[in-house]
Amino acid sequence: MSELPPFIIFLVAVLLVVATRGIVRSVILLAAPLLAGLHLWFNIDPGMTISHSILSFEFIVMRTDKLSLLFGYLFCLASFIATIYAWHVKDTAQQLAGLIYAGAAVGAVFAGDLLTLFIFWELLALSSVFLIWARGTERAFNAGLRYLIFQVASGLLLLAGALIHYHNVGSLAFDHIGLDGLASWLIFIAFGIKCAFPFLHSWLTDAYPEATVTGTVFLSAFTTKLAVYALARGFPGEEILVYIGVAMACFPIFYAVIENDLRKVLAYSLINQLGFMVVGVGIGTALALNGVVAHAFSHVLYKGLLFMTMGAVLYRVGNINGSDLGGLYKSMPKTTVLCIVGALSISAFPLFSGFISKSMVMSAMIKADFGYLWLLMLFASAGVFHHAGIKIPYFAFFAHDSGIRTQEAPTNMLIAMTIAAAFCIFLGVQPQYLYALLPWEMDYWPYDASHVLAQLQLLFFSALAFVWLNQRGMYPPELRSINLDVEWLYRKLLPNWVHKIITFISVMKTYLSAVAIALMARIRHAFSQTFVAKYHLSESWPTGSMVFWVAAILATYLLITIFR
Amino acid sequence: MSERNQKEYLFDKPENVKRLLRGLYAICILLVVADFVIHRHVSLSWEEIPAFYALYGFIACVLLVVIAKWIRKVVMRKEDYYDE
User: Fold this and answer.
1) Which residues of A touch B58 (CB under 8 A)?
2) With an 8 Å Cβ cutoff, are A482 and B28 in contact?
C-alpha cells in the first residue's frame, strides 16, 4: 500500500468523476484529497523512492523526504478545503479541472526527476486554465490565453533546461541544481515564471481575478507554492533570490493600495507573500528554509481564506470592486469575521498563523546580515497589514454603507472558510505541531516579549496611520479604474507596434505600387515618342500572341530545315 | 430606503466608531509605554531607537500611501483601457 503514489488516487478519482453524476460525484471529489492526504500521513515515510522504467528511461514518480511530504500534506489539505468551498458547483469542466490541477500539484511535489516534474508542470498549466475559462466572459478567455502562454513557456524552458542538464551531467535527478551554466538558468527562469518573479508576474495579477469564484481559490494554492518548493529544492542559498524576493515583497504593495478589484489586491499581496518565501530560499540556512516551508503552509491557508471570503462576496453581490462595496458586515457578518481572521493571519498578528512563520524568515535575515534589506522587508510587512489586513475587510465590509443588502455566504462556503480560519488560529497558537514537521533541525520559538511587542507596535501604528490618513482625506479613494503593469508591454505596446508595422507595410505597398504604375506609364509614354513606336510590333501585345508568333517562327524554321 | 430596513447596526452609531478608535489610540499609547518598561533585546543597531517599530510602522504606511498616490498618477487608466 505504501508503494502507491498519491497522484494515482486523484487519477482514479478523475475516471470515477467522469462516470458519475450528482451527489456521488461530489463525494468522490471530496474523498480524493482526503484519501490522498491520509495515505500520505499514515502510509508514507520520508526517504522512499519509487521508479518505473518506460522506454528505457527511469521515471522517479515518487521520492519522499520531509520537504516534499510537507508540501504534499499542504496540497491535499488545500484541495480538500477548496473542494468543500466549491461543493455547489455542478460544472463538470470546473470539477475536473480542480481535481486534475490538485492531483498534478501533488504529483509534481514528489517528482524525483526533471522529466516527471515537467510532465506534471505542464499538466498543472493545462488543467488550471479551465478554472479561468469557466468564468465564461471574453475577458476571462483572453486572460486565460495569456496565462496559458506564460505557463507553457515556463514548461518549455524547464524541458530545455532539463535536456541540457542531462547532456552536461548525464542525470535528470531533481536535486540541488545551483546557478551554474545555461541549463541551470533555463530551469531557474522556468521556476521564476511560475513563482511570479518581478516582470514575469503579470500572468498572476492578470488571470487570478478573472477566474471563477471557486477557481481562484484553487489557483491561489498550487502553482506558485509548487514553484517555491522547486526553488527550495533546486536553488537554496542563491543570493540573487534574496534581492528578487525583496523586490517581490515591496513593489506589489503599492499596486495593492491603489487597486480597485479586491481579488486583484489579493493577487498582488500573494506576490508580496511569495517574496518572503523567495528571500528565505535565497538565504538558505536551516532556519530560513524552515521559514519558507512554514510560511508556504500558513500562507496557503490564510490566502485561501481571504480569496474564499472575497469569492463569497462576489458570489452574493456579483461585484468585487472596492468602489462599489461597503457595509456588507450587516448582511454577511460571518464572512466578515472569517475575513478578519484571514486578514490578521496575513498581517502576522501574534496568535495567528502568519506570525509564527514569517518571523522565521525575518530572523534568518538578521542572522545572515541582511540588515538593510531587512528594513525593506519590515516595510513590506507593514504594507501587508495596510492593504490586505485593513483595506480588504474595510472596503468590502465596512467603509461607507453601499446600501447593498444580501445574504450570508452559502453553508458549504462557510464550512470551508471556517476550517481554514481554524487552521490559521491553531497554527498561530500551537506552532509546535507545524514546527515538528519542518524538514530541518532548528531551535526557534516565536513568542517572546520583545518580539510580540515589536510586532504589535508595527501593526497597531500601521493601523493608526490608516485611520489618520483616512480622517485627513489623504487615503486614495477606491476608483473604477485599472492600473498599468508589466502586461501593458504585451497587451498595448507590442500590439500597437505590430499594428504600426502592418500599417506601415500596407502604406508602403500602396505607395510603391503607385510609383511603379506611374513609372511604367512614363516609360510607355517616352517609348511612344520614339520613332520605333509607329511600327505595329512595338505596340503592347498580349503574351498569347507573342507565344503564337514565336511558335509560328519556330514552325517556319522547322519547315525550312526539313525541306532544305 | 423603506422603514423596515432601518435596523441599526453596530457601526451606524457614530459613538461606536468613536469607541473603536479610542480603543486603538489607547492600545497605541500602551504599546509605546511598554517599550520603556519591557527591555526589547535587539540585534540590529536601529532597533535601539525608542519605539522603533511604532515609528517605523507609522512612517512606512504614510510613505506607502503617498508614493502609491504618485504612482496612481502615472499608471491609472480607465476600466476599458485594454478593450479599446
Assistant:
1) 461-462, 464-465
2) no
Distance from CA of A257 to the nearest CA of B (A): 7
Contact A464 B62 (CB under 8 A): no
CA distance A275 to A367: 18
Q: Mind listing the pLDDT tens digit for each residue in A425-468? A: 999 999 999 999 999 998 899 998 888 999 999 999 999 999 99
Taking contacts as CB-CB distances below 8 angstroms, the residues of chain A near B5 are 405
Tell me, yes or no, whether B26 lies in a domain: yes
Same domain, B28 and B48: no
How big is the A-B interface in CB pairs under 8 Å? 148
**ipTM surpasses 0.85:** yes
Q: What is the pTM of this model?
A: 0.89
And the C-alpha cell for A344? 490578521
pLDDT tier at B83 (50, 70, 90 boundaries)?
Answer: confident
Beta-bridged to residue A329, according to DSSP, are none
- Do B4 and B28 share a domain, yes or no? yes
Domain that holds residue B65: 43-77
- Comparing CB atoms, the residue among B53, B78, B81 nearest residue A457 is B53
- pLDDT at residue B1 tops 60: no
Rg (chain B; Cα; Å) = 21
Contact A106, A123 (CB under 8 A): no
Chain B residues inside the 8 Å CB shell of A255: 68, 71
Percent of chain A scoring above 70 in pLDDT:
99
Instruction: Return the HEC string of A369-393.
Output: CCHHHHHHHHHHHHHHHHHHHHHHH
3-state secondary structure of A504: helix
Mean pLDDT score, B37-50: 80
% of chain A at pLDDT higher than 90: 78
User: Inter-chain contact A464–B10, Cβ cutoff 8 Å?
Assistant: no
Taking the C-alpha atoms of residue B37 and residue B31, their distance in angstroms, rounded to an integer, is 10
Clarify whether residues B56 and B69 are in a common domain: yes
Q: What is the spatial distance between Cα A389 and Cα A530, in angstroms, rounded to a whole number? A: 89
Q: How far is CA B26 from the centre of its chain?
A: 14
Chain B residues whose CB is inside 8 A of the A481 CB are: 76-79
- Alpha-carbon dihedral of residues B76, A274, A297, A417, nearest 10 degrees? 0
pLDDT above 90: residue A255:
yes
**Residue A528 burial (CB count, 10 A):** 12
Q: Is the same domain home to B7 and B26?
A: yes
Is residue A478's pLDDT more than 90?
no
Mutate: best of A458, A459, A470, A487, partner B, most B CBs <10 A: A458
User: CB A484 to CB B71 under 8 A?
Assistant: no
Q: Which residues of B touch A331 (CB under 8 A)?
A: none
